[in-house]
Design goal:
Elements (H helix, E strand, L loop, with lengths): L3 H29 L9 H4 L1 H19 L11 H32 L8 H25 L5 H37 L10 H24 L11 H5 L9 H5 L6 H29 L1
Helix pairs in contact: 1-3, 1-7, 3-4, 3-6, 3-7, 4-5, 5-6, 6-7
The protein binds protoporphyrin IX containing FE (2 copies).
One protoporphyrin IX containing FE binds next to helix 3, helix 4, helix 5 and helix 6.
Amino acid sequence: MEDYGRFLALLVSALHVGFVAVILSLVWVFHYREGLSWDGGAGEFNWHPVLIITGFVFIQGIAIIVYRLPWTWKCSKLLMKFIHAGLNTIAMILAIVSLVAVFEYHNASSIPNMYSLHSWIGLIAVIFYSLQLFLGFAVFLLPFAPVPLRRAVMPIHVYSGLTIFATVIATALMGITEKLIFALQNPAYSSSPPEAIFVNCLGLLLVIFGALILWMASRPHWKRPPEENAKALLPVGGTPEGTEAESTMTDGSQADKADLRINSDIARKQNLKLDEAAQRSTM
Ligand code: HEM
Ligand code: HEM
């Protein structure tokens, strides 16, 4: 891999920054706020930032760069797809639980739903994320989509994945700012109490984490190399063109020749199918 040292440095930094952000979100809710509970009160609301930062930011970030880890390039693409899809599914579940927490809290306290820009963009991000997850499964994991469709969808998948991730970071920053403005009354946010400084730093870490992930995921030379796929999966002695059988036939009857041609046609079709299946498993 080109620039292996730099990749490793960025990866270690991203993991540290993301992990510290998760810890800071816990310190925020336990030290400065009401902790965590599931009773319709403020403790239930607090699941919202904690689960979003853990799942929707940190785990989603790792899911995005998992194909780029060079030591996984010897693992099968199918295994990596399961890991990528699995991490994204965990992120989705945590995001949904975090939304249930905030809606329940709002309803229990008679606070209106879906009035803020934060909630609009946040809900749109979750809806697009679930679409991305569904289409990812349908097109890249299940064995039905043909190779040309996979090839056409891939750039859209990568673009929309990165856009959703960036939007999630922006939404988290809006949410943090809103919460600080609502919660800090005496002393107010504008007088920079320790909680404000602490949570502003958490927001900075989220931006740094997002920037690191987006950088790593957008370097073409750190992309997982394409598989030596089709040939490797052809059966031993398989001859895609079917020429070998014909060229070794020197003195057979016309009927034998025709027979062999039919057999080699069947073999060619089988090989094309295998070839297509092999390519599908790698795209
Ligand atoms: C409310 C989504 C991150 C703070 C909401 C609501 C949604 C949402 C849909 C509306 C709930 C309702 O109307 O009952 C998201 C998404 C996030 C995210 C998708 C991830 C990017 C955060 C973070 C915080 C936060 C990190 C930090 C504390 C709030 C607050 C509300 C809220 C204070 C209530 C006020 C409002 O409705 O805007 N969020 N949120 N959010 N969220 Fe988030
Ligand atoms: C690649 C996002 C779900 C299959 C990518 C990339 C992103 C991304 C940003 C580019 C990674 C890179 O260039 O290294 C997402 C998001 C998902 C999701 C946000 C969920 C909401 C899925 C699912 C599958 C899938 C369910 C099914 C297996 C793939 C494949 C690649 C990919 C095959 C290409 C990897 C390569 O370049 O070698 N995804 N994805 N994705 N994703 Fe997803």
